[in-house]
Each structure stands twice: as structure tokens, then as C-alpha cells.
Amino acid sequence: MRVRMTQSKDIQRMRELEQYLEQCNYQYYVENNPTISDFEFDALLRELQDLEAKYPDEADPNSPTRRVGSDLTSEFESVEHRYAMQSLANTYSSEELGEWIDRITREVSDVEFVCELKFDGTAISLCYENGVLQRAVTRGDGKRGDDVTNNVRTIGSVPMKLRGEGYPAVFEIRGEIYMPYASFDRLNREREAAGEAPMANPRNAAAGTLKQQSSQVVARRGLDCTLYHIAGDNLPFATHIENLEAASTWGFKVSEHMKVCRSRQEIEAFIAYWDTERKNLPFATDGIVIKVNSYAQQRTLGSTAKAPRWAVAYKFQAERALTRLVSVDFQVGRTGAITPVANLEPVQLAGTVVKRASIHNADQIAALDIRLGDMVYVEKGGEIIPKITEVELSERPADSKPFEYITHCPECGSELVRYEGEAKHFCPNSSECKPQIIGRIVHFVSRKAMDIEGLGGETIELLWENGMLKDIADIYDLNPQQLAALPRLGDKSAANILDGVRASKSVPFERVLFALGIRFVGETTAKYIATHFRTLDAIAAATVEELSEAEEVGSKIAVAITEYFADEHNRSIVERLKSAGLKFEIEEKQRSSNALEGKSVVISGKFVGRSRDDMKALVEEHGGRNLAAVSANVDFIVAGENMGPAKRQKAEKLGVTILNEEEFMALIEGTPAVEQVSIPEPQPTKEETKPIQGTLF
Ligand code: IVH
């Protein structure tokens, strides 16, 4: 009786938490008006996660806990769209736009147009039934797309349950998933720190992220979603704008920058305004979409096989400039990757003077047939540095010759190599090539790695030139006399550096692992690997298969790690760092209880409320030991969903106890839950809806 009472109280609490946390999400992501602190939010979310782990059958697939993602891999099943997802006719010319407007005005009378931003991301269709998100599907070929629901659930601004009233029982709403510049810049900083090529632009980054296998990765990338089209049989209003306004009251993020226009002049004014003003938006746009407002008129106008006749996209001319290519430099990164950089005759482009542009690799030089002395077009899209997009062949000098790509490293002279599947050339001389060594040391001491103050790029180069710093381990052999004797470096700076070096010995293991600069092992990946394996020795000894078992580690990363440790030079550096006293083990958390004292546990399969690594951490927190394989030494197995049948058979044969997640949690019960944070009294909901129209002019 008592058990049942707690259970019903728990379930009631789950429902309260779900509702309240969703309200917080909405305030944060859609209204841009957070109502509680991140700390309180995290504590409540954790409480809900714990309850969901305890009552997995009661967990809502649209629970706010889904927003942080899970390690369930998304399968991207192909599904048919209920309403085909058409594309848009587009034009770059205002003359063509004028013709389109004339044609519409001839075919339907008293027409109203709606002008809106063209978001530069990737299209998505969201299906709702009775106010609950059922499915999120990519455009695919327009008829069928990929089901990416688990990933889309992590996007804070996509409502999983609708608010307000008046929405049809079944409908689809479409929009664009995009990566705001702030998220894009952060992602690229992380990629560069991990030695990976940066993403070319926010559009590619958004599309790539949406197809990630792990929704946890998606959750962290900071995508956003604005909706711009509703499809359904029982829509409440007869016009596009009214339905979108209604959608905004149902909790969707709808653009604030839409305007009803009644003439070509008004449309052109809207375009002209946004052609400059869009540069102040926090996300990328590539044009303006003009739609006929009335559904009845849309039906009269109909569609071609590809696109509706009632809408058109006016695309902004990407900003480009014509200038001469003077020379090409080749930069060598810390991983040895060679990046060609074009030196240009300075030219004005989108408000800045451009002197350099990126050309990604040899293939691109060949594809565009870029030659020294050519007049080339440079463009600035969402990219960080401008790029060369085309050669003006009519201005090619008569004596020009095809560009010959370098065959040897411009820094150390080693012959360059090309690895399979890599577009770039690499200098293989990692232990002696100067920019690679300096780059690795700069990375090692950087803020998110060992954070050694006082050791900047210039000092590192100075030390290298004086033979005092040949690799990262040499940092721990630096002595005050040597340092103080160097030109430009007095006693004070020397002492400062050595203090920083000393302090770095207490940097936690996951950051040491990141600092090593193993290819593709960024800050977050390092954290996952450190948590999974606990010690550097365990990582160094792991096979590709074992490494791939850690969260977020795919085969590319796993191979890079094994290659790193297969290299004798790297192993000796690691040994020297170890002797210097760096942390090569994860710090054990304080024990929560001794419930599993002396017990060996295997965690297997997938769990509802926690990731596998969280489960393993729980085992250790409660005094137990994690083992990877089932053997007679194992005290019990905690089996999640889909534990392999072979493992189960083996356990049964050996007589090892199998517990499910709930039984395991009961066993360690008494673990202090996250302190209960109270849910504030419900806030009065805003009666009025956000104005959509007329915010602009
Ligand atoms: S309406 C049937 N409105 O542009 C009409 N599309 O180039 C469906 N897009 O596939 C599209 N912003 O991914 C519409 N305000 C907007 C848009 C928009 C961006 C994208 C969308 C579409 C593509 C066509």
C-alpha cells in the first residue's frame, strides 16, 4: 500500500517536472526570457531523469530529458511525407521578380504577399498529433525523408507538446533548422583545437549535425529552428500569416520579421532593407521568400512538378569581388596538414579589405584551374575567411601556366603524403617539423588544455630556437637559470612561467588527455574517453573496438588514438610527462555508499534514464568495480535494453545474477538524490500573442 502511494506521488512529480521544465525551455529558447537559473534547471532535470530511470514505463518520449540527447543511435529510417516537400523557384534578379509579381497579379486579384527571411539551413517537417510531436523528417527527395526525431527533440525551440489552443488534431509544420553564428564559431573553435578541419559554413554544419548518430552530440551543438509553413487539412485560418501567428501561440518559434506587402514597391523595400540589415542577424540568411498570403489564391495558382507557383525566393547576391592572385602560401598545421592560402591584391569586400583567401586543397586548385596572376572572384558567405570561387578566364594572362602544387613541406622539406580519404596533403615529419612542434606545444599550454600562463606562442618559439623546447615534455625540464638567461625574458617572466608549469601538474586528467593533441580528440571527446577508461594506461592499451565502446568515439577517433600510442616517440613523451607528475588518472569521486563494496559488476546494453558511462560511474561511486566481460569473477550484470543474447547465455551458464536497471537502482538506493528544488508557483501566461507583423518598418 505504502509502496503504491510513493509510486503515485513520484509519478505525479514526474508530470509536474515535465510540464514545468518544458515551460522553462519555452521561456529560454522561444521567448529568450529565462525564468530560472541554469543550476536550478539542471537540478530539476536530474530529478526527472532519476524518476524516469525508476519508472521507465512512465517516461514520456517527449520528456524534457530528451533534449539533452541519449546515446541511443538514431537510425534515420526513411519515411514518406504526408504532403510533398517542394522546393522554391528562385531568382537573383529584380526584373524576374517583377515578372513573377505581374503574373500573380494577373491571375488572382487583390493579392497580398507575405515577405519573409530565407533562412540558410536545412529544411525540416514536424508532424504533430493532438498537440504532441510525433516525427521530424528531413526533406530528402521531397517525397521521402529521414526520420531524425531523436535529434530534433534536442533542439530547445522545437516544442514537444503544444501550448494554447486551436491547433488541428493532425498537422505538419515546416521550417528551417540552422546553426546560429555563435554556435558555429564555437563548433569550429572546438574542431580546430582537436586538429580537425573547420566546417565551411553554418548551413553545412547544421545539415551535418542533424545527421549525427548521437543525439547527445546534436544537443551540444546549439541548433535552432524557425517555422515558416503549415500543412494540414483543418487549419484554423484562411491565410498563411494568420496561421503562423497562431502557431506562435502554440509555442513554435516563428520569424518576427515577416511583413504583408501589397505592391512591388513594398516588396522591393523589404528586400533592400534586409539586404543590409541581415548582417546584424545572429544567423545566416540567403534571401527573401515572397508568398501569396491567401490559401484560396495559393490553390488557384497551384504548383509545377517541383515548386509552388505562389511563392518565390529572391536570393541575395553573395558578396564578391574581383582581384588578382599574387601568390600562394602553404601553412603547416600542428597535425602536419597543409593548407594553401591565397595572397591577393587588396580589395574591398563587404566592408573589409581582403588580402588573403582560403583555397582548401590541391583538388580545389585543380578543379577551378586557379593560376598565379589570374583575376579571381572572392566571396564572403557565412565563411570565416573569404574564399576563391571562380577565375575570370577572360582576363587570364597569355603566358599563364597551370599551378603546380608543392610536393615537399615548405618548412622542413620532407616529401608530402596524402592519406586515403583525406583531401589535404600532410607533412609526415611530425617530430622535427617546426610549425608542427610549435603548434603542438601551443595547443598543450592553451587555456582549455594545461593552461600554462606566461608561455605564449612567441616565448615557445624563442625557447625552441634556443634548443630548450623540442617537445611538450621538455616544458617540465625547464629551469630558472636557463630561462632567465634568454633574451627578452627576465627573472619575473621566468618565475611566472615556472609557476604556471608547476600549477599545471594539478590539471585534471581529461584536460591532460586533450592537451596531448591526439588527432580528432577534442575537449569533449577527451572527457568521454577519460570517464570511460579512467586511466591513460587503459586508453593506451585499448584496441580500436574497445575504444569505440566509449560514448561519442567512432572508428576514426579510435584509430587515431591507437596510432598515437603505437608511435614510440609519443610513448616516450607520455612516460616523461608521467614522471613529471601530471595527472594520468581520473580523480575518484567521493563515495556515496558502500552498497557495492567488493562487488564486480558488468554494465551491458542501453538504459532508459542514464548513459552506460553514468551507470559505470554509479558502480564506482558505491564502492563497486566495473568489468568489461562476463566471467565467473563477476558478481552481477546490470542488463539494459538489448543486451546481447550471447552475453546473457554466458551469464546464465555461469550462474551470474542479472539485474535490470530498476533492481540495480534499488540496490544502491539511499544514494542521496539531487536536492529537491521547488517549482515556483505557475506564472500567469501571457494573454496577448507576440506581434509578428509590422515589427519592421
Ligand atoms: S517556404 C512550399 N519559407 O528554402 C514552400 N522556405 O530554396 C516551402 N527556406 O526548401 C518553403 N527560408 O528549406 C520557405 N521563409 C522560408 C524559408 C524557406 C528558408 C528554405 C526551405 C526550402 C528552400 C528552397
Q: Strand order within the widest sheet? A: 2-11-10-3-9
Biggest sheet layout:
5 strands, mixed
Shape: flat
Q: What is the terminal-to-terminal distance?
A: 65 Å
Average of the residue pLDDT scores: 88
Which stretches are low in confidence, meaning pLDDT under 50 for 5 or more residues running? Answer: 671-676, 683-697
Tell me the β content. 15-25%
User: Structural class given helices, strands, pairing?
Assistant: alpha+beta
- The tally of beta strands, per DSSP, is 22
Helix/strand layout:
Blueprint: H1 2-30, H2 38-54, E1 78-80, E2 89-91, H3 94-107, E3 113-119, E4 122-129, E5 132-138, E6 144-146, H4 149-152, E7 170-178, H5 181-193, H6 202-210, H7 215-221, E8 224-231, H8 240-249, E9 259-261, H9 264-277, E10 285-292, H10 295-301, E11 311-315, E12 319-332, E13 338-349, E14 352-358, H11 362-368, E15 375-380, E16 387-391, E17 417-418, E18 425-426, H12 434-445, H13 457-465, H14 480-484, H15 491-503, H16 509-515, H17 523-533, H18 536-541, H19 544-548, H20 555-566, H21 568-579, E19 600-604, H22 612-621, E20 625-626, E21 636-639, H23 645-654, E22 657-660, H24 661-667
Parallel strand pairs: 2-11, 19-20, 19-21, 21-22
Antiparallel strand pairs: 1-6, 3-9, 3-10, 4-5, 4-7, 7-8, 10-11, 12-13, 12-15, 13-14, 15-16, 17-18
This protein binds 2-(butylsulfanyl)adenosine.
2-(butylsulfanyl)adenosine (IVH) binds at residues 86-88, 90, 116-119, 123, 176, 228-229, 289, 308, 311, 313.
